[in-house]
Design brief:
The structure is a homodimer of 218-residue chains.
Chain A (H helix, E strand, L loop, with lengths): L1 H9 L14 H6 L23 E2 L17 H8 L19 E4 L4 E4 H4 L7 H12 L2 H6 E2 L15 E2 L2 H14 L7 H24 L10
The structure holds a DNA duplex (13 and 13 nucleotides).
Chain lengths: 218, 218
Amino acid sequence: MYIARALLELRGEIFEEEAMEPIPVEAAEAVQAIEPVEPAMPEVPIEPVEPAVHQVPIEAVAPMAHVAPLVEPVVLEAALEPLVPIEPEVPMEPAAMEPMVPIGSGQTLVPLRKFLRVKWDSYTVATRSLLRAVFSQSVLATHSLTGKRSPAFLDRPVKACLDAQIVEDIVTTVQTRFKSSKLKKSMIRKVITTKCADECKMLRMKENRPPGGGSKPP
Amino acid sequence: MYIARALLELRGEIFEEEAMEPIPVEAAEAVQAIEPVEPAMPEVPIEPVEPAVHQVPIEAVAPMAHVAPLVEPVVLEAALEPLVPIEPEVPMEPAAMEPMVPIGSGQTLVPLRKFLRVKWDSYTVATRSLLRAVFSQSVLATHSLTGKRSPAFLDRPVKACLDAQIVEDIVTTVQTRFKSSKLKKSMIRKVITTKCADECKMLRMKENRPPGGGSKPP
DNA sequence: GTTCCAATTGGAT
DNA sequence: GATCCAATTGGAA
């Protein structure tokens, strides 16, 4: 069973190799959902106090596609705050139904549906893919690995840093999957840095070309 | 004898021994065992599979000390003075006597004495060390890997690029030495880029602090 | 549409 | 003193 296998792989109990087994896309596609719209609102990075578990927001989709997708605004708002762990006082109703998968230390939870779409073709692709499963595009575009200022551009505003625990969980997950290639953490972190930079560029493109800016040759 | 051993190492008949990446060594990570680099097993395909210019037979150099290399070291005379004579004050006659060692394709010759000083502790150290054995500090400081302009600093003057053949020979040499870790060329090239940048910074420092700039507390 | 590359930088290690 | 890190960039792959 795919889910069971995915969980086993998670725990490193199934061997990986450079060319991983073809990803069970069918399972993911069965419940495929349209990517939620990314509100271009730069959210303020709220530092969690002492999070026990980092829960990645789920998409507004019914648990196993059996039920009609009951989209609640609460869920959408939650999706805006990917870095913030679920708050105790906010009971997540539909979110609780979403099957979650722990990665790394187990403190980071990834929606199973998203996890199944992660591409394991190479450590770089896997890292970038995992990032997209865990963070929203807007978060990736507005954050950096360390939150430190660019030494080459000291005047540029500093970006907030990605949640360190989640980053660490991603790194160890990729390391485990590709452990036969003895990946150093710094390699994976470099990919994360590049991914954030690329997302930042893409976001900038979209902002400067909202709609109607394109040239239309007749 | 050291020279004999060096030649053996060149042919890959002596292996990396302890020479391997001393481990990621990130922060708290720690405990990955330094796995011993495969059992000693001569597997380097130095054998003359092809008559091409690939590998210069070691024998052509071994007799040395009085015979010029069979292959004309065209590359090294290429204006960039990649290989400087050991002693500037001695005439070039001893330079012709200097035992040279071919690396990579065999088109690049390294003075044996410098080659013996190369550190093989890790692929990064080895790469930087090899660079210093092949290029002068001033060349490293004034050149870059590709010779392309920095995309982040389009106004900066473009540096000349290091000799592509020599770079390739360095890359393949390091790759061969550390092939058990399946190094990608891009990794090694990145080290070269960084080394050039570091040498450039150092040169800049020296230029701004010739002598007499230091503070002397009594 | 992404991903990758590498030049430059200052500080950290 | 040398090496490593990673933020930023534009264009190449």
